[in-house]
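User: For a benchmark we're assembling, each entry needs the component sequences followed by a predicted structure for the full assembly. Here are entry 17's components. Please fill in the structure.
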Amino acid sequence: MATKKESRVEVKKTYKLFINGAFPRSESGRVFEVTAKNGEFIANPALASHKDLRDAVTAARAAQSGWSKATAYNRGQILYRIAEMLEGRANQFESEIALSSQINSAKAKSLVAQAIDRWVWYAGWSDKLQAVSGATNPVSGPFFNFSISEPQGVVAIAASDNFLEFIDALGAAVVSGNTSIVLVPGGLAVPAMSFAEVLATSDLPAGVINILTGSLDELAPWAASHMDIDGFDISGIQKKKQGALKEAGAENLKRIHSFESGKTPARILAFMESKTVWHSVGV
Amino acid sequence: MSFYGLVDGSEKSLIHFLDQLSGVDQVGAEARAAMLATRSIKTSSKKWAIETAISMVDLTTLEGADTPGKVRALCSKAVRPDPTDPTVPSVGAICVYNDMVEIARTHLDAIGGKHVPVAAVSTAFPSGRASMEVKIQDTQDAINAGAAEIDMVIDRGAFLAGKYGLVFDEIVKIREVCGDKAHLKVIFETGELVTYDNVRKASYLAMLAGADFIKTSTGKVAPAATPPVVLVMLEAVRDFYSMTKRRIGVKPAGGIRTTKDAIKQLVLVNETAGPEWLTPNLFRIGASALLNDLLMQRMKMSDGYYASPNYVTID
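Assistant: Structure for entry 17:
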C-alpha cells in the first residue's frame, strides 16, 4: 500500500524463466511465493512445468554443437565477461541473497564475492582442461595415440538452494562445452533470475544456459528420464531421493552425479568423456 | 466444354466466375485460424491425431543433393516409419523429383511398400518457368516412371498478371496427361500470391480445371502453409463440394515441422471442411522433418518419458 510519503508507484519485477536466451513465462502459468525470514513477501517466481523443461532441452540441444565447437579461448572469454557483469551488479545480488536466503548482509556480501571468484576460476579452466585431462598415450606401434576430453552434450542440474553451489554446478558443466538446464528451487529463484539477466547481456549464445525455477520434486524425475539429456548433476537432491533418479536415468545411460560442495576440476571432468585418436607417426 | 457446369473453359467465363467470389475477410480469417490453434488435444485424441498425421505425411525430399541412396532410405522410412514398432502406419506418399521416381517406385515395391504411392513434382518445379511442351513432357516422364501423383506448380507470374486463362489451360492440359493414371495436385505457392483473395481465386481456378488436390507451397518460399492460408483453401473445397458434390483434397506443405503444427492443421480441417476430409485421400501434409517429431511424440506417449532425436533417423 502506498503511503503519503512515497512519491512513486513501485515498479515490481515479474519473474519468468530463462529459455533459449529469452524470458518466457511458464507454459503452465503457475508461480510460487518466496518470502523473507519475517514472512514478508519478496517475489512470485515462475513454477516451471515439464513442458518448460522439454522446451529448455530442445534449446540446449540446438545450442550444443555451436558452444562445444567454439574455441576454448572464446568460451573462456564469454564466461569471464559473465563475471564482469556479476561484479557490476554485486550489490543487487547481495541484497537479493540476503533477503531470499535469509542470511545477514555481511554473509551475503562474502558469498557473492566468493561466487564471482569461483566463476572466474571455472572460466580459467576452459583452455587448460586438455592439458590436464588429455594425454599422449604410449602404444607399441608407429602411431601417436591421443586421449582427448570432450563435452558430453546436454547436462541438467538440480541445484541446491545456495548461490555458491549453483555457481559451482553451472560453471563446471558449461566451461567444457556442455549446454545446460538448471532447475532452481525455492528462494534461490530470485538471484538465479538476476543471474539470467547477466547471461542475457554477456554474449553467451542463446540456449547454452537455461534456467527453470520451480520444484525439484516435480522436475527432476522428468529430467532424469528425458532421453535427450546426457548428464545430470543431482547435488541439490536429498540422498534418499537420488536412487529413483538414477534408475530413471538408466534408460539412456545418463551420467548422474552428486558432488560435495567446493571447487574441483573433477567436477568439470565428470561431464566430459574421453575420446581416443590414432595418428600415424612420421608421414 | 463444360467444367462442372460452372465455366465453359473460356477466359471470359472464368474471369466472370472468379470475379463473383467474395473477398476474404483478412482479419477474420487470421483470428479464426489463431483461435482454432489454441485447441488442446490430449491423451487418446492426441494419439489418434499423431497416427492420422503420420498416415497423411507426404514424406518429401526435394534437394539438388538428393542421391538414390537417400531416396531409398526415405522409402524404407515411409513404409515403416518406426522400425521398432510395426503398429505405426505407413506415410501417405513419397514426394521426390522426377528423376527419382523410378528409384523410389522400384525400392518401395521391393520392400513391401506397394501401398505407398510415389508423388513427383512437375511442370518445371519450383518456379514453373518453362514452355508448355517442356511441362507436358516433364509430367509424362514422371508418369511413365511410375508416379501415381503429380504435384504441379502453377505459373504465378501469369496468375499475378491476370492471365487466368493461361493458368487454367495449363492445369487442364496437365490433367489430360495425368488421365486416370495419376492424381493431380496443384501447387499455388501462396507465399507469392500475396493476398488471401488470390489464394481463394487460385483455389477455385485449380478445382474447376480438374485438380484432385490443391497444395499451398513448394517448400522453397516462406511464408508457406500458414494456418490462415490453409483455412481459406479448406473453405474453398468445402464450398466447392456444396456446388459440385465433389470433394477436392488439400495439402499444406512447408513450415510444418512439429507435432503441434500438424495437430493444428487437423483441427483446421475438422472445423472448416469437416471430418470427411480427415483421411489421407483428402488431406496430406508435405513435410520432411515433421515425421521425426511425430514419431518422437508417439514414443513419449507410449514410454512416458521424452524422446531424443538420437533414436530417429537423421533424414
